[in-house]
Amino acid sequence: MTGTNGNGGKRGFAAMDPARQREIASQGGRAAHRSGNAHQFTSEEAREAGRKGGQASHNGRSGKAS
Fold first, then answer.
1. Furthest C-alpha separation in the chain
2. For 16-66, what is each residue's pLDDT tens digit?
3. CB atoms inside a 10 Å sphere around CB 15
4. Residue 36, pLDDT score
5. Which of 5, 16, 49, 60 has minimal CB crowding within 10 Å?
């Protein structure tokens, strides 16, 4: 559904300029680190996340034309 305001029907955060979105998101990340609530991956966690991502990517390919 597209709106008449020229932003393709997007509202709120989605309607913002991408640069402004990044700015707001980075502020949240910095605040989380300052308060000690930000998760910091260990090398083992990062390895496991990469393995799962590779599996999900690989499993999504059936090799068959649909």
1. 50
2. 999 999 999 999 989 988 898 888 889 999 999 999 988 888 776 655 444
3. 14
4. 87
5. 60
